[in-house]
Specification:
- The protein is mostly helical.
- The protein starts with a helix and ends in a 7-residue tail after the last helix.
């Protein structure tokens, strides 16, 4: 082949991603991002809000998020491209809607890893206080970024080992809890995690629904699986199955662990509601009192390591989103360059932004509160546009064959109603940040319209 031909072929393949992921790898990325023990940090808050029916909260939350997972499974089959919801909205609703979906999802994909890195830094600082938490935070960013630059397959292999560790710790907790319950009995009624502990009055569905609006945030991350659609072997059907499987497995893990720890919890939901300061450590406190400090420490170390690798999965997904938007010239074209099938420019860009946000927050006493208050609006807005994409593609454009008014109408409409309801229930600070980010995105979009060379 001539030198010119070789150069042309290289240019044509410059934006290609390498297909190397299997079903297990996709599930690993999804569960890493979610984290198998995600309820640990919010257990006390949910227990207080739901009047003790915390396991029921996760049952309802899993069903609620199933609508979003089903919509992802619908769209990834017809648009198996990197960028997930950005690509779906672009083809189903138009390029402007696609940009909005990608722009809002970017807020989530860039800041959730920052929260996870900060959590890891705080945990490591507690174990080794001689090293500042911002140093641990930065170190976690560097290590996981190097893994992502190595390649998606290599990162998935290391991630699998970390995920296996988290699952083992979760099993140790479950077995220990069952032993204690069999030996000493439950602190609360055996059905109380599903019906409430009765200390705040009779069962209240409104209290459970209010807690669900917080619990659904534990699931953010399973959607990252769809971002790897161009790197999976065996077709998009495998991605769709992985999305649904990951959500179902996470739901089972969340319900099981919250049910067990609620039975071990010596503090009532009314007491937790009256003393918000105890809510953050309620899971750890219950384990410490009922099982022992050794399990408390084991869970804490597992969460520290798991948080860093949750950020790894989030950073990889963010890189794919930036890559997809760069390839379509909605962001700088340089983001679409690949090296040996890895979007290294996009990953590095995501890493730098996340590093700045995480280290900034790590150097402030209120840094965690600032980050946590804004990470969810972007994902929920993108989920809403995902549901709209299902309706637009299948029911309005009728581009996906025969229309099922159940799969292509009722499911996405209910799913959108759920995500909008959670947005409305979000904190005022989160809503303001989301609105500002949206306005900035609109300014970028208008600027793109005003210059030539933007692809349709």
């Amino acid at each position: 082949m001539s030198e010119t031909g070789t150069t042309t072929r290289a240019a044509e393949n410059a934006d290609d991603l390498r297909r190397s992921l299997g079903f297990r790898d996709l599930v690993v990325y999804g569960l890493l991002f979610i984290a198998p023990m995600a309820p640990v940090g919010v257990f006390g808050t949910l227990d207080a809000k739901s009047h003790g029916a915390v396991a029921l909260v996760y049952v309802v939350a899993t069903v609620a998020m199933a609508f979003t997972a089903f919509s992802y499974a619908q769209m990834v089959r017809v648009v198996p491209r990197a960028g997930s919801v950005y690509a779906y909205a672009r083809v189903a609703l138009g390029k402007e809607a696609g940009f909005v979906a990608g722009w809002m999802a970017m807020l989530d994909y860039l800041l959730i890893p920052a929260v996870a890195y900060l959590f890891s830094g705080i945990a490591m600082n507690a174990l080794v206080p001689e090293v500042s938490r911002w140093v641990w935070t930065a170190l976690a960013v560097v290590v996981t970024t190097l893994l992502n630059l190595w390649g998606v397959r290599a990162a998935a292999r290391v991630g699998f080992l970390v995920l296996a560790m988290e699952i083992v710790v979760l099993l140790v907790f479950a077995v220990s809890a069952v032993v204690v319950l069999a030996r000493d009995g439950a602190e609360r009624g055996w059905l109380s995690p599903l019906s409430g502990d009765g200390t705040q009055g009779a069962f209240a569905l409104s209290a459970v629904i209010g807690a669900v609006s917080v619990a659904v945030l534990s699931y953010l991350g399973f959607d990252a699986i769809a971002s790897f659609a161009e790197e999976v072997t065996g077709g998009s059907e495998k991605v769709a199955r992985a999305v649904l499987f990951c959500l179902a497995l996470a739901g089972v893990l969340f319900v099981a662990q919250t049910y067990l720890v609620a039975l071990l919890e010596p503090v009532t939901s009314a007491q937790l509601a009256a003393d918000p300061g105890k809510q953050g450590s309620a899971f750890y406190d219950a384990v410490d009192v009922s099982v022992g400090t050794w399990l408390h420490d084991l869970v804490a170390v597992s969460k520290a390591i798991g948080a860093a690798f949750a950020a790894l999965a989030g950073q990889a997904a963010a890189g794919r989103l930036l890559f997809a938007m760069g390839r379509d010239r909605r962001l700088p074209r340089a983001l679409a360059r690949t090296d040996s099938g890895v979007p290294r420019v996009a990953v590095l860009c995501a890493a730098v932004i996340t590093l700045v946000a995480a280290v900034w927050a790590a150097r402030r006493d209120d840094g965690m509160d600032h980050l946590v208050s804004v990470v969810d609006i972007g994902a929920l807005t993108a989920f809403t546009l995902l549901h709209a994409s299902v309706v637009g593609w299948f029911a309005v454009r009728r581009a996906g064959g025969p229309v099922s008014w159940w799969r292509h109408g009722a499911v996405p409409v209910v799913g959108a109603a759920i995500t909008v309801a959670v947005i409305v229930a979000a904190s005022g600070a989160a809503q303001v940040v989301g609105a500002v980010w949206f306005v900035v995105g609109m300014a970028v979009l208008v600027g793109q319209r005003g210059r030539s060379g933007v692809s349709p």
